[in-house]
Protein 1
Amino acid sequence: MRSRTIFCGAATIALVASSAAKPADLEPQLKLPQAVWNWSGGYIGGHAGGGYGRTSFSNPHGPSIYGGIVDTPAFLAGGQIGYNWQNNSWVFGIELDASGAVSEGTNTCLAPSGLVVSANCKAGPSLFATGTGRVGYAFGALGHTLAYLKAGLAWQNNRGDVVNNFEGRGLPQEKNPFRLWSGRWHHRAGRRASPNACMVGEPGI
């Protein structure tokens, strides 16, 4: 009888000690739901890339026998700034961006025949800028993906010069530099992941 009592007492102590060692096992664990991503807010960033363009030169005396096109491959880099407003799953935004370009192409031009003195035409873009509005829709897991359309105005500064290839003996070659601003309406479609991933795709249209 005494032996049984000691055994029961030892078992009780062991259970109490075991329970006291892991009090967290008896408490319920609460898991907070993940927050839905919100695209509202401002942003600023940079970009770099390459491009290809063409500048055409026309001659009132007829098309050049060497062609009137100057090819202008370019490297560009710049920055962008914008702001988004989100209403439910719809996202509205504005964006401004500007890029400087390193580009120059050259070609013989302004020669309607071999009997006419030709010129050497150089051209290349030096600056791009856009101002756009955007409308998009957030979807996917917790709204982390945004598909959107944006449209606005684009400006380009093109510079270069036209140098006559022959001015006669003792005369310097005449050089006619030019700088031209041009603008146009443009639109794009794109898909953007949340800024955690920082993935952007905008194929031109």
Note: The first helix runs from residue 2 to 21.
Protein 2
Amino acid sequence: MLNKFIVISTGLFSIFSISTSAQEYIFATEHFNTINATQCFYEESSGAPKTINFQGLLGHGVPQHYQGLTLQDNSRVIDGWAPTWSSCSSTTDSHDIVTYGNAIPVVDFIVIENPTWKGGMNRVNLIANASDYEGNIVSYEWVVNGQVQSSTSDQITIRTLLGGDYTVTVRATDGGVRIKNTQGNYYYNAGYPTFEQTGIITRDITLQEWYCDGNCTIH
């Protein structure tokens, strides 16, 4: 159940928050310039004239699609991953503006230490706890004392002999949004999510040094 709704508008970009019974989310919204239909007129290899209607977003990295074909720079029809292409002799466009929002993920992490690990180090598990309003977390990035870790999963393991202070940052990124034309019941960017959002937290933690209580064998 929603119990709070706040909107802050800054022209073309807005931020608003929604509180649920468990979590408050910050939403970012943006206006997208869309193509309702771009008609590309060209001739096939046989010389037959052809018209293709494309639909999609106008923006970097979001191609305009129609049934497996891609329109590039409003001038070429690209067919397939090993592309063959045809030039458009002319194009006509129909544009629209749509506004879409995407929640910024909320992220934290917990620390589980094993300072008596028989490997001779304090083995530390860092486990992210991230949530997304749309339930769409796709990747994580960990930075420990300024070093980016290789893992993109929700948990990592580090080891320390002497313990001490560590600065840990974790970023949780969602899968973006698919922007829908409600009248035509299709997605402008089907298969190409956009407007991805990242939640971030940085905390300083203090880890224990490794110790062996009693008769233990390092292995």
Note: The first strand starts at residue 4 and ends at 10.
